[in-house]
Design goal:
The radius of gyration is 16 Å and the shape is globular. A hairpin with a 3-residue loop joins strand 12 (127-132) and strand 13. With 171 residues, it is mainly β. It is 0% helix and 53% strand. The protein has strands at 2-5, 14-18, 23-26, 32-37, 40-47, 51-59, 68-71, 77-82, 85-93, 96-108, 116-121, 127-132, 136-141, 153-157. The strands form 4 sheets. It has a 4-stranded antiparallel β-sheet, with no helix packed on it. A 4-stranded antiparallel β-sheet has the order 7-8-9-10, with no helix packed on it. A 4-stranded antiparallel β-sheet has the order 11-12-13-14, with no helix packed on it.
Length: 171
């Protein structure tokens, strides 16, 4: 079994990995592809001219299953849920690929053992939200300044599981 990227217009597929991906996602602008499997996160920068670019690989410090995976609309941030936490990385700087994942935040968003089923970025990429089986919805600022860091996370507890998230167009 392999994971491949197949062009819609035809042509040869690009082999991305041996084995199957647990999660995969594109940024809204189609410039970044992220894939998670077996405690690894793989990242590719994609262009129309050159197709799939060089792969960046990041091993999670505590290998576990990735419950949800999302890229910000412009591909600057990557968020993943694992073990009741959200992991947030910067994958672009000034619109250019960084070539590696730069940690931004690691925040508990749910009780250990609870499943975070969805991660969603706001249209402007400044906010990321998580929802899951415990009914907890967490809102996290992606690029908090030093003054904002103490106010960067908000949590809302619902009486039952929160399985779907949405932002308005103006975030």
């Amino acid at each position: 079994e392999v994971t491949e990227l197949r062009p819609l217009a035809g042509g040869e597929p690009t082999l991305l990995a041996e084995g199957l991906a647990d999660r995969a996602t594109f940024s809204a602008d189609d410039s970044v592809l992220a894939m998670a499997a077996d405690g690894w996160i793989r990242l590719w920068h994609v262009t129309a001219e050159r197709g799939v670019g060089r792969e960046s690989v990041h091993r999670l410090s505590e290998p576990s299953t990735i419950g949800a995976l999302a890229l910000s609309p412009d591909g600057t941030y990557l968020a993943a849920s694992s073990g009741g936490e959200i992991l947030l990385w910067r994958v672009k700087s000034d619109g250019q690929p960084t070539g590696t994942l730069h940690p931004v935040a690691r925040e508990p968003v749910d009780a250990p053992g609870q499943r975070v089923s969805q991660i969603l970025f706001s249209p402007d990429g400044k906010v990321v939200a998580t929802a899951g089986s415990s009914g907890r919805v967490t809102i996290l600022l992606t690029a908090a300044s030093a003054a904002e860091r103490t106010h960067r996370k908000r949590t809302l507890a619902l009486p039952s599981a929160a399985e779907h998230l949405a932002f308005s167009r103006d975030s």
